[in-house]
């Protein structure tokens, strides 16, 4: 089994979908550690309830992003993590983490990248007036939501939607494609060639 490290800043529903898929035997992996930059993240609580190592790492306790990320890397390595999953982790990943986990950091974003990168993507899409949006699982590179795309799912935007109802419809798809992307990685089925991610049979 592959050891996963999940970084989450908030509610942790994507973390939950990954834990559930591991528990159900759908992914040959286990969540070895959950790390948060937010002491009150419900994600930490979900991990503790499931008996998974849960660590709050306070970014303010470190001078600079490099030192903060080296601490994260230390905790990930102590837990023998092979794949890092960002799940509602609200910080830009820097060089220290990417260097230690080259092509082994993935993220879920609540829009069809390259549209609406950054924060509040569902709100951005709703304000823009697009008729379809969705979510994207991608490898993380040093840009903001710019890495090679693994999977996407599309959802319609209805005239009656609010940003909340749209976000909810997108989240439902996130909970499907994130565990699926993790599964593909863990089964060795993903091959990155430049910007493209190919699915091996
Ligand atoms: C999810 O919608 C995720 O796609 C988004 O935050 C939410 C976290 O929910 N991520 C980003 O916006 C990344 N910039 P969760 O904590 O319930 O998984």
From TrEMBL:
<dbReference type="Pfam" id="PF00551">
    <property type="entry name" value="Formyl_trans_N"/>
</dbReference>
<dbReference type="InterPro" id="IPR002376">
    <property type="entry name" value="Formyl_transf_N"/>
</dbReference>
<dbReference type="InterPro" id="IPR001555">
    <property type="entry name" value="GART_AS"/>
</dbReference>
<comment type="pathway">
    <text>Purine metabolism; IMP biosynthesis via de novo pathway; N(2)-formyl-N(1)-(5-phospho-D-ribosyl)glycinamide from N(1)-(5-phospho-D-ribosyl)glycinamide (10-formyl THF route): step 1/1.</text>
</comment>
<feature type="binding site">
    <location>
        <begin position="90"/>
        <end position="93"/>
    </location>
    <ligand>
        <name>(6R)-10-formyltetrahydrofolate</name>
    </ligand>
</feature>
<keyword id="KW-0808">Transferase</keyword>
<feature type="binding site">
    <location>
        <position position="107"/>
    </location>
    <ligand>
        <name>(6R)-10-formyltetrahydrofolate</name>
    </ligand>
</feature>
<feature type="binding site">
    <location>
        <begin position="12"/>
        <end position="14"/>
    </location>
    <ligand>
        <name>N(1)-(5-phospho-beta-D-ribosyl)glycinamide</name>
    </ligand>
</feature>
<dbReference type="InterPro" id="IPR036477">
    <property type="entry name" value="Formyl_transf_N_sf"/>
</dbReference>
<feature type="domain" description="Formyl transferase N-terminal">
    <location>
        <begin position="6"/>
        <end position="182"/>
    </location>
</feature>
<dbReference type="InterPro" id="IPR004607">
    <property type="entry name" value="GART"/>
</dbReference>
<dbReference type="GO" id="GO:0004644">
    <property type="term" value="F:phosphoribosylglycinamide formyltransferase activity"/>
</dbReference>
<protein>
    <recommendedName>
        <fullName>Phosphoribosylglycinamide formyltransferase</fullName>
        <ecNumber>2.1.2.2</ecNumber>
    </recommendedName>
</protein>
<comment type="function">
    <text>Catalyzes the transfer of a formyl group from 10-formyltetrahydrofolate to 5-phospho-ribosyl-glycinamide (GAR), producing 5-phospho-ribosyl-N-formylglycinamide (FGAR) and tetrahydrofolate.</text>
</comment>
<feature type="active site" description="Proton donor">
    <location>
        <position position="109"/>
    </location>
</feature>
<dbReference type="GO" id="GO:0006189">
    <property type="term" value="P:'de novo' IMP biosynthetic process"/>
</dbReference>
<feature type="site" description="Raises pKa of active site His">
    <location>
        <position position="145"/>
    </location>
</feature>
<feature type="binding site">
    <location>
        <position position="65"/>
    </location>
    <ligand>
        <name>(6R)-10-formyltetrahydrofolate</name>
    </ligand>
</feature>
<comment type="similarity">
    <text>Belongs to the GART family.</text>
</comment>
<keyword id="KW-0658">Purine biosynthesis</keyword>
<dbReference type="GO" id="GO:0005829">
    <property type="term" value="C:cytosol"/>
</dbReference>
